[in-house]
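Let us work through a complete example step by step.
Step 1: write down the sequence.
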Amino acid sequence: MDMEADAGPGYARLRRRRMVVLAIVIVALIGSIGGLLISTSIKSPADVAAQSQPPGLTQLTATVHRQVISTTVLAQGKVSKPTEVSGPAASGGGGGGSSGAQPIVTRIFLHPGADVAPGRVILEVAGRPVFVFAGVIPAYRNLVLGETGEDVAELQLGLEELGLGVGDDTSGVYGPGTAAAVAAFYQSIGYSAPTISTGRKADRGAMMPLSEFMFIPRFPAHVASLGAKVGGTASGKLVTLSMGNPAVAGQLNPNDRGLVRPGMKVKITDTVTGKSFHGRMTSLKSRTETKGSISGGIFLPMRIRPSRPLPGSLIGQNVTLTITAAHSSGAVLAVPEAAVFASVNGSTYVTKVTGAHSQVRVPVRTGLTGDGLVQITPVGGGTLAAGNAVLTGQNYLQPGAGIRRGNVIRRKLTVVPPG
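Step 2: predict the structure and record it as tokens.
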């Protein structure tokens, strides 16, 4: 059945009107959406130019400070191990050759790390002392009345340095005066002086048995290790001593050769903990080397002597060296190097910022530089003080500037002449 025909002409007209209204609404919606898209994608030349403008001028300034300026040079180094000497050999003699005694450590007076002085008792083995004197000739025999040699001379010198004279004995000859001095030495440290009890040299005065003393080339010395603990049997060498303090073998970049010299202060920094120690450069070689280079390149060897003994944990470790090549005699006016400019006539100046848009060019004389700072002294009537702001730079584009043929247009700054 045809419902539209049954409804009559009025229904058909109403339906056509509804379709026309719907079409108008659709067209309006399409037009609105299209206009929105066009408005967001099409820009006027003014909009394009505005969005192409760079950011405005940003002045970069720094503050003038009054401080000490130091010029530093960085280098690398390695903490070297002190020379070590061991002795005397453990034996069961004790007491200058008495039989039956075992090399048992009975007392320890100086433990590892302790300082050792000439004639100071380090430990006791089988009730007998072990001590050390200065001497380049190692101890190699018992020293008794009638012996001669350089080792005897070393012993005599050591006794005399302790205030024990050897009488009329000739240097290098173990005579009655030396024997008396040896006896007095043993008495001063609380032990009986050993003597030879048998043979043709028996009862001929005090002796110095090889089992109780050792010579080392120099002091200061420190106990590096001991042959045994108290109650233990000593084996091998009874005592190992380290001579002197750990030094630093430095490696300087050859390009910095003209900036440093022996005697300069050095800061030694542990690269692991960051802890620093002070010292001085004692030597600098002029011939470059590559063997053992820390950085892998050539270097000039130098020696650094720490002001105080370095901890044993640093021995064999790499360290950073900061050498103070020069420093101002006191506090001076200082600015970053980027704040100092050169005029066409070769003079130098800084630009003091005195307001939002005004600046004063202050002529200066430059001095010491270090760590990015430079010493300045105002000249020609210019004034400058700690706390002033000085110009270090600015971007190239100014507010309101345009771009012409690819070149940046810069706004002219207002510069107030000095004075």
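Step 3: interpret the result. The CA atoms of residues 262 and 282 lie 5 Å apart.
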